[in-house]
Amino acid sequence: MKYPLLVLIKIYQWTISPLLGPVCKYYPSCSHYGYTAIDRHGAIKGTALTAWRILRCNPWSLGGVDHVPPRKRPRWHEMLRGAWRARRGGPSAAETATEDNVASSPAAETPSHAQGA
């Protein structure tokens, strides 16, 4: 579902957008924002972000720079990743946190800027 939406946005950018000229108050333009949002977040959330952006683009808006928010990993993804690492014997997030708190060598006690290049 994501790719047909991206194709529609590209068709708009190639045909209609050049006729209208640069009229968007925001940077990046709404069509570029929509393309990036759908590409990054998927069809449903990307369409919702794009619709919210278009609703904000009105005569009373100040405009400005408005980038697409970064994609966040869901909590269940982090839990699955931790379980997978624990099963494979790799370091989990809990083990990494305890290793950071324990200084095992004199080099670990020295600040990084004092160790040299």
Total DSSP E strands = 2
The biggest beta sheet, please? 2 strands, parallel
Number of helices: 7
* Overall average pLDDT: 81
What order do the strands of the largest sheet run in, or round the barrel if closed?
1-2
Shape: elongated
Q: What percentage of amino acids are in beta strands?
A: under 5%
The residue fraction in helices comes out at 55-70%
Spans of at least 5 consecutive residues whose pLDDT stays below 50 are 102-106
What is the SS-derived class? Answer: mainly alpha
Radius of gyration: 23 Å
Distance between the termini: 50 Å
Order of helices and strands: HHEHHEHHH
Describe this structure as you would to a colleague:
Helix content is 61%, strand content 3%. The chain has 117 residues and is mostly helical. It has a two-stranded parallel ribbon. The model is unreliable at 102-106 (pLDDT under 50).
Quick description:
The protein is mainly α and 117 residues long. Helix content is 61%, strand content 3%. Helix 1 packs antiparallel against helix 3 and helix 3 runs antiparallel to helix 4.
